[in-house]
Amino acid sequence: PYIGDIIEIKVQGLPDRICLTPEHKVLYKKSLLTGGWIREYNFIEAQALKVGDTLYFHPVHPHETRDILTEGQCRLLGLYIAEGYSDKNQVIWGFGGSEEYLADETITLLGKEFEKVATKRLDEKHHCWRVTVCSSKIAKWFHKYGGRLAWAKELKGSILRLPHYKLELILNSWAEGDGYKVGNQQQVYTTSRNLAYQMWNIAIRIGFKTYLYKRKAKSGHRESWVLAWSVSHKYRYANLEHKVKSIKRLPYAGLVYN
Questions:
Q1: Edge-to-edge strands, sheet with 119-123
Q2: Beta strands across the sheet bearing 179-182
Q3: Mean of the per-residue pLDDT values for the chain?
Q4: What is the distance between the alpha carbons of residues 132 and 135, in angstroms, rounded to a whole number?
């Protein structure tokens, strides 16, 4: 195990602190004004960083793999990680009272993609539409690709290798089911940390400028993460740069992973 100091860094736009050994190198951006702004990127040790410096993050760009999901399945998966829950024998979606169109679309897609008839009912007590499909096979499929419990939902790793247009379909379906818009900004919240970071990575790979932050847990509730992005424009390199907000040097004894 490692015994020594670690550098704890907090950057703008991400909720979690980054912990590194002092000698661990990071990609650092320096802007120079010499007849115009010139950007230089160099690797420096974490212990040399200062508040206000800019770190460069590169999103994960795995090689695209075979299309393991159809467009219809991507749509269903996005709606499931937003509004779905399940047990061993059934999958249930709960849509808002004004989202009957999503309930109907889900039923249509389940019939097309899985050849299974789903049912719809209005839950007047909770003012929502319930779509239920009874099938252990389908339940296992959604568990495999999207997880199960709300706070433990996450996409299977192979999903992140899908072509960008399919990832965008999953992202937009998740947002349509669980998000809301403020002007040109889309916001979605989730109680799953892993899902929040997966969607953040997908969003910046697609080209959206994003912001991810954490909400403290209220009494009787879990903490949650909010992912926001601008839908007005896509960029070739979006949100790869984050300014350092704070730096601490702390004693540490334990395992480190480089």
A1: 84-86, 90-96, 128-134, 119-123
A2: 179-182, 185-190, 224-230, 210-215
A3: 89
A4: 10
